[in-house]
């Protein structure tokens, strides 16, 4: 099945065009990616281990869920879909806005942070994408990045996710 993405302009506005996953990007064309990080009351993030045969970062540990938004999806809908597809969890994100957005070459990555107790034993892994999940502290994730077992996000990004969960805005009230 062909995966279609909406094409965005540099300012994060839809252009009305679509593109197939794997196609080359034209200049000033971008697509939307989402990540959702779930945290428990102990301040740990739910992380997943990618399958050994997954294209891109096989066997590495990663944030809770992430992926590209499909044509017609908002960030919230894409995050809900990824969460259900990869871990079998249904959570309504209609009222949740991304905590922040990271710009990257040819895209925008909307990052959601949510406190939610989840029983790992109730997760249903997407067989072709996920092989394991566990709760991990900020220190453990940063150690895993250093050891080369976690996708090499900037440690400051991991710190920011942990520091901003449950908070909105750029300053303390």
Automatic annotation (TrEMBL):
Q: Does the keyword Transcription regulation apply?
A: no
* Keyword set, alphabetical order: Hydrolase
Domain Nudix hydrolase, chain residue ranges per copy? 29-159
* InterPro entries named among the record's database cross-references: NUDIX_hydrolase-like_dom_sf, NUDIX_hydrolase_CS, NUDIX_hydrolase_dom
Q: Does the keyword field hold DNA-binding? A: no
Top-rank lineage group of the source organism: Bacteria
Q: What's an example of a GO molecular-function annotation for this chain?
A: hydrolase activity
Which PANTHER family has this protein been placed in? ISOPENTENYL-DIPHOSPHATE DELTA-ISOMERASE
Could you tell me what this protein is called? Hydrolase, NUDIX family
